[in-house]
Specification:
alpha+beta, 31% helix, single chain, elongated, 4 helices
């Protein structure tokens, strides 16, 4: 995890998250793409972050919704796609399948 964080330091990486909806024997899939820009991370900071326990079960060794968010300078794309389920894209798929989550 520490090596991963140091590789992310001062770099941008791409997070891809796919969602698929199956309804009435039809399947539609969409992919969310988000670019995450990291600020510089020192070895000491990465070590402290490891000691919190947060990065131990995270893809990419950080949780943007937790303490790891302190390393993220900016994102372009879907915040929810980084956390897990890209909400906007999921709603689009569901609405296209005839499932309205927020009726008028």
């Amino acid at each position: 995890a520490i090596r991963m964080l140091l590789r992310l330091s001062k770099n941008t990486h791409r997070v891809l998250t796919a969602v698929s909806v199956n309804c009435h024997d039809k399947s539609k899939t969409i992919c969310s793409e988000t670019f995450v820009n990291f600020r510089p991370i020192s070895k000491t900071e990465a070590g402290y972050y490891w000691d919190t326990g947060e990065p131990r079960d995270k893809a990419g060794a950080y949780a943007i919704q937790g303490k790891g968010g302190a390393f993220v300078e900016s994102i372009t794309g879907s915040h929810s796609g980084i956390v897990g389920l890209p909400v906007f894209e999921t709603v689009v798929l569901l609405e296209n399948a005839g499932i309205c989550l927020l009726p008028e």
